[in-house]
Amino acid sequence: MITVLDAGAFTTIQDLGRPGHAHQGVSAAGAADPLSLRMGNRLVGNEDGAAGLELTLVGGAFRFDQSAIAALTGSNFGAVLESNSGATRPCAPWKRFAIEPGEVLRFGATREGARAYLCVAGGIDAPRTLGSRSTHVATALGGMDGKALRAGQLLPIGTPRSAAVQRLGGSSDSLTSAIFRRTLRFTPGPQADRFPAESRETFRSAEWEVSESADRSGLRLLGPALLPPESDSARTEGVCAGSVQIPGDGRPIILFMDQQTTGGYPKIATVIAAELAAVGQLRPRDRIRFEEVSLGAAREALLEQERLIATLREPA
Questions:
Q1: Is residue 227 classed as helix, strand or coil in its secondary structure?
Q2: Are 293 and 301 a contacting pair, CB within 8 Å?
Q3: Each residue of 282-301: pLDDT tens digit?
């Protein structure tokens, strides 16, 4: 078991989500930075989709009641391990480390990006809901009672898959450059051609600031107001993570992992799949730009990302 001593600002159990239920009004949820979760799981010998802890902006403190192999990925929260004697040692991201019974893993505030991931060999053994352990707070699904973690909770650890764990070959620089991007590539959204040319050009050329209204459901951006579509007819339709919708005030919202499954605002763009991890690491006051690419380029970017991940998996 892991005992939650301090749950931090917003810590949830996440895996790679529950796709396939949008027709039931259930969004996929899952890790906001799936690249970091996948690589953390590989470091400890788990399958890519094993459940871990997603920490947001400010971490917490977790006591391990048994020995464990763990890894931290994503943003650097300045984590340290505190022994029973009170001695501490730092835990660097992107590396595997051992934890002894009774030791406490403590996190501070983020030093870069928005989210860190704690993966342990065997994964967090929370109950599955619709095939996933991911927490979706808005609908109270998954995780521990569908809520962010709270002090005093006990988190069961699953059985490690095998004694053979994985390490990351090469440097983690290629991964961090992917998850801390500030230029997000996009393809035109389903209503892009209805927006005036001036709005489309402003969207591509402006620098946008992530507002304080940014969470797992969506990120509101501050910047110039975009002129509305030339046709004001709107209809409710399915939406996906990465859709960029333009509400009445003309300022974009990037829909994200916990987004509603339908929406009626016109969508000027869709952030490509290869950039979703970077969206998951954005925090308020970060400044970003958008770069338009073709569907073919978007597909190639995702394939290139998968090739990168494959080269970083080597036996220990």
A1: coil
A2: yes
A3: 999 999 999 999 999 999 99
